[in-house]
Amino acid sequence: MLEFFDGTVWPIAVSVAGWSIIVGALVYIPFRRTPVAAQAWLMLFFFLPWIALPVYLAVGNARHPKWRRDRIEEVPAIIRKAIAHIKLDGVSGLRALPQRHRATSHLVQRIGNFPCVAHNKITLDADYNRVVDRIAADIDKARHHAHVMVYILQNDQAGNKVLSALERAARRGVKCRLLIDAVGSSRDRRAIARRLEGTGVELRLILPLRFWNQATRLDLRNHRKIVVVDGLIGWVGSQNMHRIEYEPKTFYREVMARVEGPVVLELQSIFIGDWYLETNEDIASPELMPEPPPPTVEHKAIAQVLPSGPDYPEAGVDILFTDLIYAARQRVVLATPYFIPNEPLLVAMRTAVAKGVRVTLFVTSTTNSVLIDHAQQSYYDELLEFGIEVMLYRERFLHAKHLSIDDDIAVIGSANMDRRSFELNSEVTLVAFNEDLVRDLRVIEDDYRAKSHRLQMAQWQRRGFWRQLAENVTRLISPLL
């Protein structure tokens, strides 16, 4: 026994344990990860087994704890019950779609369960402060209910406008429900809870961190941004509710879609499902699913909503992005703050260029993470070699997330183009088949172009050796980011 502690046996024991961890990882990980992610994890286990093991146990498996999975299994029934209240007679949009888009609509419905519906009015707004004011104004007009779900809500100038509108609505007798992510809103969640106590606004934290009873995961978050007022007006997109300067000297650029028409009820259904996940309370009712008023000439967009994430196991937003890029005929424009793609998405982009499709990627010139910067930049060589136009947006932090295909498909939502949004976060995406909306999105994209620098291969290849080394190293672990 003394020999164990005096140094003769201890190093051997540590070495055997380390190799046991590595061998265990070789047996366990490849069957539970994609090949690329498995390679990244195995590399981490090989070089740093004692660090890799607790990290993998904490965040390596993109699944909620069992108690959460059991509740998630009940959500489809809740959603079906909510959808059953939607009067779809006369609003189905499938027959009105061009034949070439019907397969995409079928795909979205298959993986997300929501059909495409006609007679929607969708307007885009890329003015950050105006969006906050308009959401508050819509809540001020609420008569029956106001539902708000955001990843980040702060008790600052922007958040205060929305919170004040909810407080005023509650005083009028409007049912107000607020969902905020426990991690994303960690900075002000306690202050917000104290503020709303006794106001009538029902606040629930999404996945508050627990380590023992009903344990939760730090990395599996609800990243959705949804507002629904009276089941008649909805908002969806990339914008959280905090002041435009979220980090010092970092001003955010966003895009939100304001929607009216039957598609609002699909956003409502997602909120109902998420409310059930956090409260075990089924609020689905006909009162939350009112029949939309008769459409006007402005209500001509066909649209549907795609929820995705661990709470919708079959719904991968990356599947939609990849399918749309393959289907493009003339033009693809992608905008995202974080671009760490999987292999199918890269192949789709390369294939589109080979077919003669012009593919443009707008990304912010520098993100709010040095590690993500290097991982993202490691793909630029490959993209430029493909012939993809890489535009580095410089004016602000480009936090908007959208995709336009040719002249008649616009995709706006909360999902970035990275593994976190593809596998770990709960996201929501609006898919609209409408030429007018795409033209409006083109105006926003043209403004990006005027404020961006186009990356050139010759210029990019002049970056230094140490920078390239940092990119290559982070590229190896990019499936883990």
Keywords:
single chain, 481 residues, alpha+beta, 15-stranded mixed β-sheet, 19 helices, globular
Give the CA-based shape: globular
Side-by-side strand order of the widest sheet: 4-3-2-5-6-9-1-10-17-16-15-11-12-13-18
Tally of DSSP β-strands:
18
Q: Structural class of the helices, strands and pairings?
A: alpha+beta
The residue fraction in helices comes out at 40-55%
* CA-atom Rg in angstroms: 23 Å
> What percent strand?
15-25%
> How would a textbook summarize the main sheet?
15 strands, mixed
Low-confidence stretches: none
Total of DSSP H or I helical runs spanning 4+ residues: 19
The average pLDDT score comes to 87
Distance between the termini: 44 Å
Give a verbal description of the structure.
The protein has 481 residues and is an alpha+beta fold. 43% of the residues lie in helices and 20% in strands. The chain contains 19 helices and 18 strands. It has helices at residues 2-5, 10-28, 35-47, 49-59, 66-72, 75-84, 99-112, 128-140, 157-171, 189-196, 263-279, 317-327, 343-354, 370-377, 380-386, 419-424, 435-450, 457-460, 465-477, and strands at 117-125, 145-150, 175-181, 201-206, 226-229, 233-237, 245-247, 250-253, 256-260, 301-308, 331-335, 358-364, 389-393, 397-398, 402-405, 409-413, 427-433, 452-454. The strands form 2 sheets. A 15-stranded mixed beta sheet has the order 4-3-2-5-6-9-1-10-17-16-15-11-12-13-18, sandwiched between helices. Helix 10 links the parallel strand 3 (175-181) and strand 4 (201-206).
